[in-house]
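Structure in, sequence out. Go:
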């Protein structure tokens, strides 16, 4: 049974000017989410710049989030990769206090659908924690089809799919044929509202880092079939959502977080801050949304 519904936020990792982790900024970010109505926290996804953090740093980030959250909302931890055995071993090492795993489809290797299925079957056997599948072909180089997703949904502790293919037909096919209790979460902020209208259960969001109040209110309204309210909030956020992804993630969202006084825009290479003109547009939109 999927417990991850509503608004999940893929937390950014704040850095100081010397590229060390800004743990105070991270604590502020978690408090903003809890105060803003976020339903669950996702640690060390793509938005958290996980590829450039060491194993020790990832553990420190996770423990900081767990301590600041203090059991208030569920915490999901990102563990994925293209070496199935290593992913399974990493999942076995996940500490107490984590409520679920987000695991991306194997990247770079471009496995067949059978390979994707066997990968997730293997890692699911390594833990009793619920697993959220993550399909993001634009980053992995391969798509997890609806048929593969639905086959994996038969495994008891595979409880949901974060779908970021952008393929509405594929997502709706999963929703149409999914077993009872299997969740579908949007992986694209801009199409969260139409996906919920089609039957999705929520989102794992980037935009909610900066605007949890409005984004979670939009999702809650949509899940309650209050589409007049949801549409208003959706269109309020649509422009800044486009800006956030214009030069890649999480550069855009960190501009808004800096404007809110939570952290700097600093990212670790190969990522770089967004251009000055885009940053100004994001600041202008942030100022408007915070009025």
């Amino acid at each position: 049974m999927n417990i991850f519904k509503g608004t999940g936020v893929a937390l950014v990792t704040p850095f100081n000017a010397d590229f060390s982790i800004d743990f105070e900024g991270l604590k502020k970010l978690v408090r903003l989410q809890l105060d803003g109505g976020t339903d669950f926290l996702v640690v060390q996804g793509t938005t958290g710049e996980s590829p450039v953090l060491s194993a020790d740093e990832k553990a420190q980030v996770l423990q900081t989030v767990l301590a600041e959250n203090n059991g208030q909302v569920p915490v999901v931890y990102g563990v994925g990769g293209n070496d199935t055995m290593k992913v399974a071993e990493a999942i076995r090492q996940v500490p107490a206090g984590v409520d679920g795993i987000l695991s991306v489809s194997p990247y770079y290797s471009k496995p067949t659908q059978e390979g994707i299925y066997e990968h997730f079957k293997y890692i699911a056997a390594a833990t009793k924690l619920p697993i959220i599948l993550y399909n993001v072909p634009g980053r992995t180089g391969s798509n997890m089809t609806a048929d593969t997703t639905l086959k994996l949904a038969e495994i008891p502790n595979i409880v949901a799919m974060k779908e970021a293919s952008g393929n509405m037909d594929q997502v709706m096919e999963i929703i149409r044929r999914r077993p009872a209790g299997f969740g579908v979460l949007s992986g694209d902020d801009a199409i969260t509202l139409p996906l919920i209208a089609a039957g999705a259960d929520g989102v794992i969001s980037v935009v909610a880092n900066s605007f949890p109040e409005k984004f979670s209110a939009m999702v809650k309204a949509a899940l309650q079939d209050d589409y007049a309210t949801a549409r208003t909030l959706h269109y309020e956020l649509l422009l800044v959502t486009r800006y956030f992804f214009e030069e890649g993630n999480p550069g855009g969202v960190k501009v808004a977080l800096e404007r809110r006084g939570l952290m700097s825009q600093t990212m670790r290479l190969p990522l770089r801050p967004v251009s000055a003109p885009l940053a100004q547009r994001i600041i202008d939109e942030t100022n408007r949304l915070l009025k």
